[in-house]
Amino acid sequence: MRAVIQRVSRASVSIDHEIVSSIKKGLLVLLGVGEDDDNSDVVYLAEKTAGLRIFEDNEGKMNLSVSDVNGEILVISQFTLYADCRKGRRPSFTDAAKPEKAIPLYSAYVSALKNMGLKVETGVFQAYMEVELVNDGPVTIMLDSKKLF
Predict the structure, then answer these.
(1) What is the rounded CA–CA span in Å between residue 23 and residue 32?
(2) Are 131 and 123 in contact (CB under 8 A)?
(3) Do 59 and 67 contact (CB within 8 A), yes or no?
(4) Which of 27, 41, 85, 120 could form a disulfide with 1 if both were Cys (CB 3.0 to 4.6 A apart)?
(5) Cβ(110)–Cβ(45) under 8 Å?
(6) In angstroms, what CA-CA distances link 43 with 40, 92, 107, 143?
(7) Which is catalytic among the residues 49, 80, 122, 140?
């Protein structure tokens, strides 16, 4: 699994120009599920996401997690994180999981975060979404459960 995590002061997702989910201070997570991912990837990435200390403490150091600051999380499915652009100019998405595999793992990731006591909102899987955010910092972190980065 791959995630691009952005520290935000607010974020929302709209479908057909109607907001379906929104958060205040917290994390926007763009989540991609790979063809070879399984529940161990879910556990790793959820724990890593929840534990990331990327919020500033009283001394201005990134030392606090999303739960430490009572933040929220917005998770958006993003199969394009598995784009392979090494050949030609059009990306290949063959490494991205098909929906029948991706949906349960995406849902398990969201559930894992909720089970940690975090407030989590989501987009709509496979929908055309407009995502708006105010990146706080900016702070953007990439995670990969296969530790490729």
Answers:
(1) 20
(2) yes
(3) no
(4) 41
(5) no
(6) 5, 27, 12, 13
(7) 80
Average pLDDT across the chain, whole number: 95
Contact 14, 20 (CB under 8 A): yes
pLDDT of residue 148 exceeding 60 = no
How many residues does the structure list for the chain?
A: 149
CATH of 2-144, one of 3.50.80.10, 3.10.105.10, 3.40.1390.10, 3.90.79.10: 3.50.80.10
Please tell me the predicted confidence (pLDDT) of residue 147.
73
In the chain, DSSP finds a helix count (H) and a strand count (E) of 2, 8
- Angle among Cα 119, 112, 33 to the nearest 5 degrees reads 110
Q: Is 140 a residue of the active site?
A: no
Tokens of residue 109, six digits: 């990731």
Q: Residues 94-133: pLDDT tens digits? A: 999 999 999 999 999 999 999 999 999 999 999 999 999 9
Place of tokens 């030392």: 63
The pLDDT of residue 149 is: 44
Which two structure tokens, joined as six digits, stand for 13? 């997702």
